[in-house]
Amino acid sequence: MEERDLVVLVDRYGRDIVNSDGTVHTMDKMQAHQGGLLHRAISVFVFNHRDELLLQKRASGKYHSPNKWTNTCCTHPRLGEAPFTAAQRRLREEMGLECILIEAFTFLYYADVGNGIIENEFDHVFVGFSNQDPNPNSVEISDWQWLSTRELKQDLTRNPESYSQWLNHCLNKVIDSISHRTIADELQEK
Length: 190
Fold this sequence. Notes:
The chain is α+β, with helices and mostly antiparallel strands.
């Protein structure tokens, strides 16, 4: 099994689960999702100077939530990979982008996303800013768009089935973290 097919199991505080031999407990990604086991995840939200969010439409071949619009990118950190490093890696792999990212917050997310898949994640949410259009990986992404958060929130209300469940769960938290913190200032300083 390749390392990228493994997820790191964690407790509800985001601490790695450690086996009796002292190693970090990992599990096959599909097995963890089918069993609904809590694991570490990453979500990235990239905004531009017009306060638009870069969205991607998941490719039709994705194992869950295919053809759904969602945030800029998501992933699971590899064993020993810091969440920040995983976020940067996946932003390059999926969207062909590089930008400065700030970890905005973490939260627990649980949802049955269909087809026997349960998302039970301790999610590290990163926010970044870029005015560059993406060069997406067509295996991962079928389409992309920049959309204002106002328009996105309206469409999420009208057409929730068009979006990933996790986007609906954390979008307001992302918006609040940007408006109540100085993330934009932090990014500009870097």
